[in-house]
Amino acid sequence: MESRRQRRAERSARMSTLTSPPAGQQEAPPVGTVAGRTVALIRRLWELSDPRLRRQQLWGIVARMAAAVCIAVPIWLLVVVLQRLREANLGGPPISQREVLWWSAIVVAATVGQFGFDLLAQRQSWVASFELLGELRLRALEHLRRLPLGYHTKRQTGDLTALVTHHLSELEPVVFGAVPTIIGAALLPLVIAVGLLFEDWRMGLAALATIPLAMLVYAWSQRTFARLAAERAQASGQAAARFQEYVSGIAVARAHGATGERAGRLAQALVRHREASIGLVNKLVVPLVLFLTVIELGLPVVLLAGAFLLIGGDLAPATFLVFAVLSLRIYGPLRAMGEQTESLRVGEAAVDRLGALLAEPVPAEVRAGPAPQGHDVEFDRVSYTYPGASRPALRSVSFGATAGTVTALVGSSGAGKTTCLHLLAQFFAPDSGTIRIGGVDIRELDSRTLFDAVTVVFQDSYLFSESVRDNIRFGRPEADDDEVDRAAAQARVDEIVARLPQGADTLVGEGGATLSGGERQRLSLARAILKDAPIVLLDEPTAAMDATNERHVQQALSGLIRDRTVLVVAHRLGTVRHADRIVVLDAGEVVEVGGHDELLARDGRYARMWAEQEATRSWRL
Ligand SMILES: Nc1ncnc2c1ncn2[C@@H]1O[C@H](COP(=O)(O)OP(=O)(O)OP(=O)(O)O)[C@@H](O)[C@H]1O
């Protein structure tokens, strides 16, 4: 038992080292040009949106641009008014009341327009950002559902939860604020710059003089920031994973007096996250402030150049004023772009992580496969090696299990028994060889047929934090209360229900925390009985159970396995001596097949295991 536990611990340690590279060795994300990365992010968000969302985002951007035009109208009017004043002063026609009324009407219309377009822009952008996030979360969950279960053994659940809940939320300000701001920052200054150059190329150049330098500083800050944001996202995923691990394993840790050590690992992850966040801010502050300062330098340059030209009589005072006001409209959006930097790069890290999840290949879904002829199960030279493992878990395993019979898989720890069940339930696909149900390769069966045909009862089936009845109904959601209660009675769950405060409506707590191990097992058997599948896979159903519970579970089992194709994994040979067929596995290979008596008579591996177990039965503490 101890060595088994050790092996499991080693296995999970191996898995976690596969998934979490040591600190400091994370791969930095590829850092392209700033513009390239930003365009790539916008393109990816665009690709991830459906046509309706795209329309919404476009409307949001168009409304923002329209609001910007409305803001520009009073500035343009200022130019017109100044010119008119100059004309009037130089002896032109005096300014009429009608003109003043027109100007006022234009300002009012522009203000109302700005209000309306801003309202529309805000609404569209917020709605688009929430809808996109909802859509991305659903897409991530749908992808997770379709991934082979092997993926979930190598990925920490806390990390996945952090991605779907926390990291994707970091995209909200990107879709709502950063993307429209950046598009605005690219378009508005461009339009104004062209206008200024056209009006007076010398002043135009002065207004644009500081922008190349500001862009260089911006590019520099983004390179560092992209790497740090990815590191921070990874640190936050790790912290979430450690937290989940800590909470789930607190009972085991306490039993082994290792709560301090576990808390230490969690604390380390939290410290790493904190340091990554502080490091991000520290590294960002200088370039960001520098960028904003260089941008701010634009106005003094314009004023200086304007003053020189004014003194030399080369520039009209009205044009000078226009440049002073309009150059501010160039720097404003650029400054806003700088301020959006953080959300942009953090969002980019979130999109990278989502992209990595969505890039995990999912097996093609078979739509309408052939129907199996009966429910015989056949393993035909099946081999499988776990990703990252140094040796195969199964090597050319062949055996058959006839419908209506019980086939037991026995062998020492690590022999490959559970792997056989997992491959049959298509949690993973074999590397080579074929598994057939009713003569059909399970890869050709559509997932619904396979799901309906096979029930798996694990050693420790997961119970949801729902009522006892709903947990049983999980086996067949359309079952009515009577059917659920019958299944419960057959699995002796009625006895448990009688003791619970609200009977079958009592909530069982996350993972079934409020029930004993044997009770949880009986509940999962009730679930399997309700499902009523023709092929039943049992993974050590009575392991580590007391005599009373074992008797109850055995009774429940006899109801479940009648007239089915049953494959049962067992360590205690006593529980499977009456099996129709016993398949003995050793280091991933089938070494013997036969009935109990036949195998004993053969005096091989099984007979030795049996003798060893008989000997240990006489042990007394
Ligand atoms: N997720 C995994 N990743 C890597 N190796 C694994 C994984 N699961 C199992 N293995 C390895 O595959 C081999 C077969 O494991 P399996 O769980 O099928 O054995 P078993 O006979 O059911 O053992 P036990 O009775 O101890 O549960 C073992 O060497 C095991 O360490």
Helix and strand composition category: alpha/beta
CATH fold-type name of the largest domain:
ABC transporter transmembrane region fold
What is the number of E strands? Answer: 10
Global geometry: elongated
Helix content: 55-70%
Q: Strand sequence of the main sheet, in spatial order?
A: 6-7-8-3-9-10
Can you identify the CATH superfamily of the largest domain? ABC transporter type 1, transmembrane domain
Number of helices: 23
Report on the biggest sheet. Answer: 6 strands, mixed
Would you kindly provide a written description of the structure presented here, covering whatever features stand out?
With about 625 residues, the chain is α/β, with parallel strands linked by helices. It has 2 domains: about 30-360, Up-down Bundle (ABC transporter transmembrane region fold); about 375-615, 3-Layer(aba) Sandwich (Rossmann fold). It is about 65% helix and about 10% strand. The protein contains 23 helices and 10 strands. The protein has helices spanning about 1-20, 35-50, 50-90, 95-145, 150-155, 155-170, 170-200, 200-210, 210-250, 250-255, 260-295, 300-310, 315-340, 340-360, 415-425, 445-455, 470-475, 480-490, 495-500, 515-530, 545-560, 595-600, 605-615; strands spanning about 375-385, 395-400, 405-410, 430-435, 440, 455, 535-540, 565-570, 580-585, 590-595. The strands form 2 sheets. The protein has a 6-stranded mixed sheet with strand order 6-7-8-3-9-10, sandwiched between helices. Helix 4 runs antiparallel to helix 6 (about 155-170) and helix 9 (about 210-250) packs antiparallel against helix 11. It is elongated. The two termini are about 15 Å apart. Mean pLDDT is about 80; it is low at about 1-30. Adenosine-5'-triphosphate binds near residues 4, 153, 393 and 417. It is found in: Cell inner membrane. This is ABC transporter ATP-binding protein. Its main location: membrane. InterPro entries: AAA+_ATPase, ABC1_TM_dom, ABC1_TM_sf, ABC_transporter-like_ATP-bd, ABC_transporter-like_CS, P-loop_NTPase, Type_1_exporter.
